[in-house]
Structures are given as C-alpha cells and as structure tokens.
Amino acid sequence: MNWEEAYQKQEVFWNRGKPSPPLRQYLERHPTRGRTLVPGCGHGHEVSLAVEYGLDAVGLDIAPTGIAEARALYPQLAARFVVGDLFNPAAELRGAFDVVLEHTCMSGLHPSLRADYRRGIDLTLKPGGLLVGVWFIDPQLGPGEEGPPFAFPVAELTALFADGYELVTDYVPDLAFESRVGRERVRVLRRL
Ligand SMILES: C[S@@+](CC[C@H](N)C(=O)[O-])C[C@H]1O[C@@H](n2cnc3c(N)ncnc32)[C@H](O)[C@@H]1O
C-alpha cells in the first residue's frame, strides 16, 4: 500500500473525519496521563482527542501529505504531528512514551508487517506503559477481497502480544462508527 499516494489522490477511505467513539468512551472512563504516541495518525483525529483528554500526544505517520493535512485540520496542534516510520522511529521517539493509542494503524498493515508493528511499539513505549487499542478486528472482507483493512482476529492480537505485555482491559465496545459496530475490540495491554 502506497499511503502517500493515497493521501495525494484523496483516496482516504478509512478516514471518518472525527475521533473514534470507543476511544473517546475509554478515555472518558479511564483518565489516562502521560506522553502519548498515536502511530499511523493520518488526519490526526485521535491526537486531537488525546489532547482534549489531557494527554501530551504526538501523531506519527509515514505519509507526509497525511501529516500536512493533519496540521491544516488542527493548526493549534501542528507541532504535535511528525512524519516518520513506526518501524524505525527517530531517536527522540524511542522509549519516550507512557501511552500508545492504536486506531486503525495495525489494520492497515499487511499481515507480514505485524511483527514490525510489535517491534515499533516495543521501541517507543516505556516499560510499564499502556498500549490502548481500538483494534479493528473484522473488516468483513468478501470472498477473494484483500485489505487494507486486513482482518486481525482476536487470537492473532493475543498471540502478537503474548510475551512482554499483560492484559489490563478487554471488551467489545458498545459505541462505534456506524460501519464498524461489533467489529472492533478495545484491548489495553501494559508493557512489562
Ligand atoms: C488505515 S490508515 C488510518 C489513519 C488514522 N489512524 C485514521 O483512523 O484515520 C493507516 C495509517 O497508517 C500510516 N502508516 C502506515 N505504515 C506506517 C508506518 N510504518 N509508520 C507510520 N505510519 C504508518 C498510513 O500512512 C496511514 O495514515
């Protein structure tokens, strides 16, 4: 997937134009603090949400046009948006975060890149830090259809973080974007 090209062509079919409802609900119910990374932040709606809930958030995305558009949408947060690769984060991002917020970064990645995603989280999240995820589990692909988004069964989420993380919270949210009802999972993991 060429993400930069998709932003340049304005083919951003994943963009819902506002922050994730289950993530908002989670932050409302579980006051969370600290330096926070939103990997694959796209247009930055979850960065805006995180700042609204008191988090010191940075949005990271590999697509420069996506980041430029996030800065234009949220000019007051412009300095919080950074171009970069989660799989090879800049030195200042390494070991720098108390919280990582996952929202449709993982589901956009080909399954062959999942180990790289895990490594990117390990490189950026401090021991003791929280990985707060709204994981897009079931994109309801038709027969023969490929992603993105790619299906990410709960068993694979469990397997990916089986070592080095402990389970904090896990549920199917009762709030979602209309097209994602019942297809997401909120799972929060603490890095050991
Ligand atoms: C499906 S989009 C989701 C964007 C945003 N989270 C949203 O919900 O609108 C996936 C995003 O991950 C970004 N991305 C893909 N690989 C990345 C990487 N290795 N490092 C950082 N960002 C990446 C893409 O550019 C894209 O913006």
Please give a handful of descriptors for the protein shown.
192 residues, alpha/beta, Rossmann fold, seven-stranded mixed β-sheet, 25% strand
What do these coordinates show?
By secondary structure, this protein is of the alpha/beta class. The chain has one domain (3-10, 20-139, 146-191): Rossmann fold (3-Layer(aba) Sandwich). 27% of the residues lie in helices and 25% in strands. The chain has 6 helices and 7 strands, in the order H-H-E-H-E-H-E-E-H-E-H-E-E. The protein has helices at 3-8, 21-29, 45-52, 64-73, 114-124, 154-160; strands at residues 35-39, 56-61, 81-83, 97-103, 125-136, 165-171, 184-191. It has a 7-stranded mixed beta sheet. Strand 4 (97-103), helix 5 (114-124) and strand 5 (125-136) form a beta-alpha-beta unit. The longest helix is centred in the middle third of the chain and has 11 residues, at 114-124. The chain is globular and about 40 Å long. The termini are far apart. The model has no long low-confidence stretch (mean pLDDT 97). The site of S-adenosylmethionine (SAM) has 21 residues, from strand 2.
